[in-house]
Amino acid sequence: MRSAECGMRNDTNAECGMRSAELQGEVMRQYRDSTLPGILRIPHSALRTLLTAALACTSPPSPPCEAVSRDCIAFTIPRGATLKAAVDSLVARDIVRHRGGFMLYARLRGLGSGLKSGIYAFRPGAGWGEIVGALGRGRGTLVRFTVPEGLMLAEIADLAARQLGVSRDSFLLSTEDPVLLRDLGLTAYAANAEGYLYPTTYTLRPHPSARELVRLMANQFAAHWPRRWLARLDTLRMSRHQIVTLASIIQSEVRYGPDRDYVSAVYHNRLRRGMLLQADPTVVYATGRRLRRVFEKDLAIRSPYNTYVHAGLPPGPISQPDSASLAAALYPARAPFLYFVAQPDGKHIFSVTYREHLAAIQRVRETRTAAPALPIRDSQPPARAPLQ
């Protein structure tokens, strides 16, 4: 059949386009006029051939969706869903534009009650054959992968190994990919992509390669960095790498969201004054493992990431910050605070002077009698005098 040949060759000549338009028009006319008597006027095999030919000519196969993106729209088919419900979902997302025609085509292809549940992703205007084939065989189903904010690279590698079957070592090696670091503008700053793998829920194909996963997460970071933040960097006289580093410390320090801007203010104020940041999360990162509590002996660990020993920001991020922590690092509260201490409920008490800070620590210790297992998190250890 000439039109089928056009579709298989993916030609774009005028003859193929004209045949396509004629066939599509005929399909839609037959559907509009096809009450049951109308359908019976056309042999079933002829209608099947007509539909298949029209779609072959107009819908060349599109690249498969490896993950949800601006070009790939996700939707879920729950267990027991009807064909009508699935088609309504496809139409609502503009993946399919002709509800009636697609319903007829899907039924002729035997999709009726054979839907495979799962998460799928298609491009808008995807070929009907491609969609029906996927839904009927469960081909191209996706999985969800959630990365909580504040994880270190090694922790994400462990998570990806457990949930996606991605090799831990391959994942960590992929974060050191020079091409990836160049694309992120990190070649001069960092040895890996720590801080630049955005924490969110990803919908992607099962068993991606380590390189694909790292690239996907890095692209999400880029998508969550708006252009207006670049001008803010100039105002602060800080690089993006410095802001991401600061944001990662804020992310690891704050449990109570409204405190972010004030914790950021403390760190900005201390940086301007040349004071040590003395941030416990940097000590945790320097040890390479999660500590339930930072003790005095841990504060002396020899590492460029130890902000109890080294002035200024550490060499790079210590975790993956979310947008809220990035914004807090860029837009700290206008407050004169230089100290803070965490309360058992995760909220902080902020202080301007060291004397006020010591009093706040005492209040927290008194409160802790009701919750003795919770450690005090302190931006300035009582045994040390602050730098002036």
Kindly list the characteristics that best describe this protein.
Dna Ligase, domain 1; two-stranded antiparallel ribbon; elongated; disordered N terminus; disordered C terminus; 4 domains; 388 residues; 6 strands; 7% strand; mainly alpha; two-stranded antiparallel sheet
Average pLDDT confidence is 81
* Domains (count): 4
Radius of gyration: 29 Å
User: What order do the helices and strands follow?
Assistant: HHHHEHHEHEHHHEHHHHHHEEH
The amount of beta strand, in percent, is 5-15%
Report the strand count. 6
Describe this structure as you would to a colleague:
It contains 17 helices and six strands. 47% of the residues lie in helices and 7% in strands. Helix 1 runs parallel beside helix 4 (44-58), helix 13 (240-253) packs across helix 14 and helix 14 crosses helix 16. With 388 residues, the protein is mainly alpha-helical. A hairpin with a 5-residue loop joins strand 5 and strand 6 (348-351). It has a two-stranded antiparallel ribbon. It has four domains: 1-59, no CATH class; 61-141, Endolytic murein transglycosylase (Dna Ligase, domain 1); 144-223, no CATH class; 228-370, no CATH class.
What's the short story on this structure?
The protein is 47% helix and 7% strand.
SSE inventory with pairings:
Layout: H1 2-9, H2 14-32, H3 36-40, H4 44-58, E1 73-77, H5 83-92, H6 99-108, E2 118-122, H7 128-137, E3 143-146, H8 153-164, H9 168-174, H10 178-183, E4 201-204, H11 210-223, H12 228-236, H13 240-253, H14 260-273, H15 280-287, H16 323-330, E5 339-342, E6 348-351, H17 354-367
